[in-house]
Amino acid sequence: MPMGIEEFRSAINNFSRPTLFKVTIPAVLGVATEFLVKAASIPESTLGIIEVPYLGRKIKIPGDRTYNDWQITVMDDQQHVLRKAFEEWSNSINGFESNVGPFNYQDNLHDAFVRQLAQDGVPTGIYKIVGTFPSEVGAIDLSWESNDSIAEYTVTLTYQYWVRVL
């Protein structure tokens, strides 16, 4: 017999809300990311598949794990706090003018955190994104027709892997 609506209501707890989150990259960007990152995601990972043929069939076994780039959307403030920080970070990896980077590239890899929050602001999930660096600092579109909007841009962060901390 199917579950009734009252049974369903009593069986569920509060759902997580996609609007309750914070992104931080403490080593590079400080507190501003908590307030200016408008959109992000909990990054994905993909477990590869190795197909081994046997008698006309393919047996599937787990392969290597891969991590796709992680993209965030940033609201630009008038002082361009985060924009400048991302540009400086990118420049320290490979100079805009010099086209050279540091001797030890690891010095420019920094951890980021995504925190999912409950309605009372307490973290319910924390993901540590290990060894990030900005592979793309996106354009800020400017237009005389963009009334009643805030300038924003995307940043693509490449990273090594992620772990769930909470």
Give the DSSP E fraction (strand runs of 2 or more residues).
35-45%
Q: What does the oligomeric state look like here?
A: single chain
Helix content: 10-25%
Order of helices and strands: HEHHEEEEHEEEE
Query: Count the helices. How many?
Result: 4
Q: Mean pLDDT, nearest integer?
A: 93
Largest sheet: 7 strands, antiparallel
What are the segments in which pLDDT stays under 50 over at least 5 consecutive residues?
none
Brief descriptors of the model:
single chain; about 170 residues; alpha+beta; seven-stranded antiparallel sheet; two-stranded antiparallel sheet; 4 helices; extended
Give structural notes.
With 166 residues, this protein is of the alpha+beta class. The protein has helices at 5-11, 26-29, 32-36, 81-93, and strands at 21-24, 37-39, 46-54, 57-66, 70-75, 110-117, 123-137, 152-158, 161-164. Strands 1, 2, 5, 6, 7, 8 and 9 form a 7-stranded antiparallel beta sheet that branches. A two-stranded antiparallel sheet has the order 3-4. Strand 6 and strand 7 (123-137) form a beta hairpin. The chain is extended. The mean pLDDT is 93.
